[in-house]
User: What shape does this take?
Amino acid sequence: MKFTKMQGTCNDFIVINNEEEKISAERMPELTSFLCQRRVSVGADGMMFISKATKDADVKMNFYNADGSRGEMCGNGVRCAAKYSYDNGLYSDSRELRIETDAGTVKVWPVGSQHYRVRLNPITKVKPDITLELEDRSVKGWYIELGNPGLPHFVLFYDGLRNEKESALWHLGRKIRQHSTLKRGANVNFVQITGWNSAFIKTFERGVEDFTYACGTGAGAVAAVLSMKGIMGGRCIEICSAGGTLKVDPVEKDGVIKDLFLTGDAVTVYEGEIR
Assistant: This one.
């Protein structure tokens, strides 16, 4: 089976051309959980199977988290899916690409050989300033979903985040991610404001069950919260993480965010064959 290893802001993925490999949906979860194991197999944060679209789109992205669970969408992954589709002739129109995901169709535009702009799934649910009761503390944050079914995120502000070790945050991230009031779990985004229009985040991702170098939809969710709270506004909010910087443009109309645009890199690392 041929595969391509890609990364977007150091979020890494195994990409399969499923028009050629024809992996059945039943095999995808088990194959993903095996191949994404680091030091055992290829290793990745997730796996994508690219095929022809079944709805009003150009290509379809079946996305799975590293543990084999199905992912509704992936902001960093969809940029890699776009680059893969262009590079491998699955789509030739360089102006716009529509990618079918479980959370709905997203539009992607190339803005260079290795950078892409994504119109993220719309915000479908917001719960501001909710409090979660944990065993040893209470935490307050915003719950936000993108798309339908929504990709769930929990956003909380954390002073001194840049200098905090992930090991010190791991148990807190895991407790929030698995909190009983979050029915479908959530990606947990810790946030520290670092400038007039920039923030630093660390995201504990469900399905990976650990911190990743970056989270594209997490960056979008954080920028949306910053905009809705009036902390930051306008275009080009810079969301920094261990993997690099993503730029998010919230587009508001009548005080409501109508669109979220995410711009970042998409890089092919290598191609290989699993025997």
User: Anything to note?
Assistant: The chain has a mean pLDDT of 94. The first helix runs from residue 18 to 21. The radius of gyration is 18 Å.
